[in-house]
Design brief:
Blueprint (H helix, E strand, L loop, with lengths): L2 H22 L2 H8 L3 H8 L2 H24 L7 H18 L1 H9 L8 H16 L7 H18 L7 H14 L2
Helix pairs in contact: 1-2, 1-4, 1-6, 2-3, 4-5, 5-8, 5-9, 7-8
């Protein structure tokens, strides 16, 4: 199977698992949406579970790579500038990887890898490098930021008609707290 064929199947599967969940997504529909037969899908992935794992692993690798390319070698004048860039870029990262995020949130009982914990640990180290505060629990802070971003992405402009303004207020609230 070519890399292009595999990628089309993985893309169709990502969309199906995000939309219908593991139980609702069928290999027949995934194969059809990818433009192939179910036999082609099974030839490469053998089982639906293998396909699901491949989708998760590839999506996780992409998200970590995207995170690294956005953040790793940037310097900031102060914590506020860091947080502004950090949160806004995480929102964009979330938008670009929303299907994967949705799967990890909705299918956490089915996922053997601990993608969320690994991602939070990775981000926590980055925050610690840029905001040095002995009293700060970086993991809890990152969970708060990610929770805000997830809810912002789920909202689709209903409660937060202006996402930029909501982000500004969130950052301001962080700096109001002692």
């Amino acid at each position: 199977m070519t890399e292009e064929t595999e990628q089309k199947i993985l893309d169709a599967a990502l969309e199906a698992f995000a939309e219908d969940g593991y139980a609702g997504a069928t290999t027949r529909v995934i194969a059809k949406n990818a433009g192939f037969t179910e036999m082609t899908l099974y030839r490469k992935f053998k089982t639906k579970e293998n396909l699901f794992s491949a989708v998760l692993n590839r999506s996780n690798d992409k998200m970590i790579e995207d995170f690294g390319s956005i953040f790793m070698d940037k310097k900031f004048e102060n914590p506020r500038d860091f947080l502004d860039a950090f949160i806004r870029n995480l929102v964009e990262l979330g938008k670009d990887n929303f299907e994967f995020i949705k799967i990890t949130m909705n299918e956490s009982n089915r996922i053997s890898g601990n993608f969320i914990d690994d991602f939070v640990n990775n981000i926590s180290g980055y925050v610690e490098k840029n905001i040095q505060n002995k009293e700060m629990d970086y993991r809890i802070f990152v969970f708060n930021v990610l929770s805000f971003i997830y809810l912002l992405l789920l909202d689709y402009g209903h409660s937060f008609k202006d996402q930029d303004k909501a982000i500004d207020k969130f950052i301001n609230n962080i700096f109001i707290c002692p």
